[in-house]
Amino acid sequence: LMQTLTLNNGVQMPALGLGVFQTPPEETRAAVAAALDLGYRHVDTAAAYGNEREVGQAIHDSGVPRDELFIETKVWISDYGYDETLHAFGKSAGKLGVDHLDLLILHQPLPSDFGKTLDAYRALETLLADGKVRAIGVSNFMVDHLSALLDAATVVPAVNQLEIHPYFQQREVQALDSRHGILNQAWSPIGGITFYRDSGHTSALDDPVIGEISRAHGKSPAQVMLRWGLQQGRSVIPKSTKPERIAQNLDVFDFELAADELAAIDELDTGKRGGPEPESITLAQFGRPIPEA
Ligand code: A2P
């Protein structure tokens, strides 16, 4: 049974969605089709992933009514600025084959030109007011970025999508989000994409604490990590291209972790991120242009 979360503007979002970060375009259509067939109703993509068109094709082919779907995508930094971000909405919606999005978020803060980040967010506010998007938000915003945005913004973001998994929990940002009614959404929720040079584990999938809890419940380590996120009120968007894993990752609504199990997972935080440091993102290094629809 799919659980839904209520965003700070009243919009309902399925708590669990399919992530397609690092899903190659040629594998995206099949992965999204498998997920929709299994009962997923939330897909998270991004202009920068280069697979919005394939997500849109799978959505179209599925025949699932648009109002049953929750489609989330992200504006890339090369499209920041007010007019540019309004235009970026059209590029993403065109590739996805939809007239509106359920959630549109800024993919990264651009610390080296934060004014452009704020202009981009103002465009999201306009798109929200015009009914082009049902909710707006941010991603990878750390405490300073979020504080500066909240000072300038009219609309409090509905979501902050962050790297959150047992080895990197970002509790300070999560707490600030929660204080402002901003939903924490976890990318890489099973930590599968990331690498931990110093921990002795390649990912928390092999962690002995996770392993012990997973055996106690007859669930996989990935399912335990997703459950840990969901029970802490987060949205989780695990990525897989393999139908059996896509199915497994959805099968997390029939068991519950005990308080001491949640606490044991809380202990695993290493404070080391797998993804890029948000403060280091620059247009010069990462700002490749997003093609037209
Ligand atoms: P694959 O696409 O080959 O299944 P996350 O979204 O947390 O970063 O996890 C994504 C990574 O974890 C991908 O490498 C994905 O590989 C792998 N993965 C996804 N689901 C599972 C699962 N249930 N068990 C093990 N690995 C998984």
From TrEMBL:
<dbReference type="Pfam" id="PF00248">
    <property type="entry name" value="Aldo_ket_red"/>
</dbReference>
<dbReference type="InterPro" id="IPR036812">
    <property type="entry name" value="NAD(P)_OxRdtase_dom_sf"/>
</dbReference>
<dbReference type="InterPro" id="IPR018170">
    <property type="entry name" value="Aldo/ket_reductase_CS"/>
</dbReference>
<feature type="active site" description="Proton donor">
    <location>
        <position position="49"/>
    </location>
</feature>
<dbReference type="InterPro" id="IPR023210">
    <property type="entry name" value="NADP_OxRdtase_dom"/>
</dbReference>
<keyword id="KW-0560">Oxidoreductase</keyword>
<feature type="binding site">
    <location>
        <position position="107"/>
    </location>
    <ligand>
        <name>substrate</name>
    </ligand>
</feature>
<protein>
    <submittedName>
        <fullName>Diketogulonate reductase-like aldo/keto reductase</fullName>
    </submittedName>
</protein>
<dbReference type="InterPro" id="IPR020471">
    <property type="entry name" value="AKR"/>
</dbReference>
<feature type="site" description="Lowers pKa of active site Tyr">
    <location>
        <position position="74"/>
    </location>
</feature>
<keyword id="KW-0521">NADP</keyword>
<comment type="similarity">
    <text>Belongs to the aldo/keto reductase family.</text>
</comment>
<feature type="region of interest" description="Disordered">
    <location>
        <begin position="269"/>
        <end position="293"/>
    </location>
</feature>
<feature type="domain" description="NADP-dependent oxidoreductase">
    <location>
        <begin position="22"/>
        <end position="269"/>
    </location>
</feature>
<dbReference type="GO" id="GO:0016616">
    <property type="term" value="F:oxidoreductase activity, acting on the CH-OH group of donors, NAD or NADP as acceptor"/>
</dbReference>
